[in-house]
Write a structure and sequence with these properties.
Layout lengths: L2 H10 L5 H20 L2 H11 L11 H10 L1
Length: 72
């Protein structure tokens, strides 16, 4: 997450017009997506498992297997 960029926007927002603020917010949201994108398959599998549909779980790639085992 780009915490510093969000703080900078909050500090500058008073002097900016609404379209500029909206554009910068959109840019910050787009920049944050890669940080969570790799968790999408993990979250999907967790929901399937918790709802009793574990047989539908999608296998992870080799990198994601390593990543999730390192985090756990």
């Amino acid at each position: 997450m780009q915490r510093k960029a969000w703080i900078a926007l909050a500090n500058e927002a008073i002097g900016l017009d609404a379209p500029t603020i909206e554009r910068r917010i959109r840019n910050l949201y787009q920049a944050d997506i890669p940080d969570i994108e790799s968790l999408r398959s993990k979250a999907y599998n967790d929901v399937l498992t918790e709802s009793g549909r574990g047989s539908e779980v999608e296998p992870f790639s080799g990198f994601l297997n390593w990543l999730f085992s390192a985090i756990a």
